[in-house]
Amino acid sequence: MTRIAISMALFLALQPIARAADNKALWDDAAQKYDSGDYKGAVETYSRLAERGFISAELYYNLGNSYFKSGSLGASIWAYRKALRIDPGMTKAKTNLQYVREFNVDKIIVKRSGFVADIWEFSTGLLSSNGYMIVFSAVWWILGFLLFYLILKPNTGFWTQYLLILVVIVAIFTGAASVTRVRNDRLIRWGVLTSPSAEIREGPGEDFEKIEVGHEGLEFRILAERENSYLIELNNGLKGWVIADAVLEI
Q1: For the chain, which residues make up each domain, given as ranges?
Q2: Under CATH, domain 190-249 is a member of which superfamily?
Q3: Which CATH superfamily is domain 2-101 in?
Q4: Which end of the chain has the least Cβ crowding within 10 Å, N or C?
Q5: Tens digit of each residue's pLDDT (9 = 90 or more) over 62-94
Q6: What's the predicted TM-score (pTM) here?
Q7: Angle in degrees, CA 143, 146, 149, rounded to 5
Q8: What is the pLDDT of residues 21-58, one digit of tens each?
C-alpha cells in the first residue's frame, strides 16, 4: 500500500508538469503553423489549447490573428474581444480589433455620449474587473491605516489630511470602475455574427417579419435567448432576433 500511495502521489505531482510541457508543445506548434501560412491549422491548435483550459490574453490575441488571416472576420473580432476581456490594457489587441472592424459591411453609427462619458469609458477600460477589485481592496487597506494613524497622531499636519482625501477619491473611483467592469464583462452578454449574413427579425423564427440583415463581424448585446434565437440590441438601439447558430457569444 505504501508503494502504491507513493507512486500515486508522484503521478499526481508530475501531472501539472506534463500538462504544461504538452501545452508548450501545442503553443509552439500553433506558432509554427501560423508562421508557415497554415492559418486554419493555427486556429485549430490554439483552439485546442483554449479547450484544455489554457486561457490567456496572448492566446486569444494569437487566435484572433489566425482567424483573421484565415478569412474569419467575425471570429477574429470575437477572439480579440476575449483577449481584451482578460487584459483590457493589451494595446496590440485594441489596435488589431480596430483594424479588423474596418472590414465590417455594417457601419453602425453610434451617438456619442459626450466628453465626460468618453473619459470615463477610457478610464474604466485600463484594467480588468479583477484588476480594479485588487486595487480597490489595496486602497481600502491604505485608507484604514491612514485613519488609524490619524487617531494615534491627530496633529500630524495638513499633508495627512490631503493624502486621506486623495485615497478616498481613489477608493471611490476604483470601486465605481470595478462595478462598471463587472457589469460590462460579466452581467452584459455580448455577441458577434460569424456567418456571412443573418436576418434580424421581429421575433424568434422565420415566421416573423424581417427588419434588417446583419453581416459577419456585426457586434451587439444579447438581451435574451429563445427557440435557438437571440434577442439582440445593436449599438444604435435597434432590437431584433437573430438565429443563434450565426452568433459567437463573447
Answers
A1: 2-101, 121-187, 190-249
A2: SH3 Domains (2.30.30.40)
A3: Tetratricopeptide repeat domain (1.25.40.10)
A4: N
A5: 999 999 999 999 999 999 999 998 888 899 999
A6: 0.74
A7: 150
A8: 788 999 999 999 999 999 999 999 999 999 988 889 99
Q: Which three cell numbers stand for residue 28?
A: 509552439
- Report the Cα 130 to chain-centroid distance in Å: 12
- Which is it for the CA torsion 74, 75, 78, 80, positive or negative? negative
